Amino acid sequence: MMKQELTDEQLSILCGEALTEKPNQEETQEEWNRFAQRHHIMDVPTSQTGGSMEQHRTNPSRIRTLVIAIGTVAAAMLLGWFLWPSSPSAPAAEDYFCFYKATNAPSQVKETINNGTCRVETPPATIKCVTLADGTQVTLSANSALVYPVTFDGKPSREVELEGEAHFKVTHDAHHPFEVKAGGMSTQVLGTSFVVKAYQAEKPMVSLIEGRVKVTADDTSIELQPGQTGKVGNDGIVVAKTNIAEVTDWMNGDFVMDDTPLATALETIGIWYNKTVVSKQRDRTAKRIHFRFSRSASIEEVVEALNELHIAKLKMEKNRIEVE
User: What is the pTM of this model?
Assistant: First the structure.
């Protein structure tokens, strides 16, 4: 059977963008009028023609033909709304699972200052070190953005916003608490070292390396101890033991995946290189892998190395990764 490929429109649906709206009543009536004209269907009251009822009664065979035709039109309209794409030769987007959808990341590090606020954005496969006015050091991961005030003078607290992932080494100041807002989650500290991760629609999380932090989300607060990760879930904040080597691997220039589900690995790789990752093989991507590789390698080299594990077949297809 011929291999089918997803279009960009299919990927938009698959990775979270909305379907088009259903046809409204006017559009439905217009389509019916065109159909009626093609098949010479007329709804003419007897009173307008002066003839008898018998003269305008539709032939039974014509009724059957009309019913079949109407059913065909209705089915086509329903399929046009519920299924994608319209071409019968292309696979439905629902057959695929999306692990990560590429974003509009900048091609190089971008810094903008507006009304005393600075925004730093990083491109794929790039990290950026930022030193804040209070001496706090922030290491920004790939495809991430940090928003912070140029100066904290006159402010009761030191507040920054994060999209993506970053490591914070906060300068101690008991009178001015430090706070990171990311993905609907707030992390408050006085002086510590931790990693915050909040990409796209994934649940935000905080991994504490040293010190102490308080994590707040949806009116729920917990305190983390070193070596713990707090992840926002549907039932509040879930605390678990963390592998510091995996949490900070991107800072050391490597992918470190020990007993990691292939699906998680694919999401991590998609984020780092900003490549959409899709698959039809849900069962294979649930398998766990042990994988260590340099983050300075090309995406093609990483895909080739993953294929050598013989767990699933991956390939680059039109600037995205597909799992066959």
Answer: 0.71
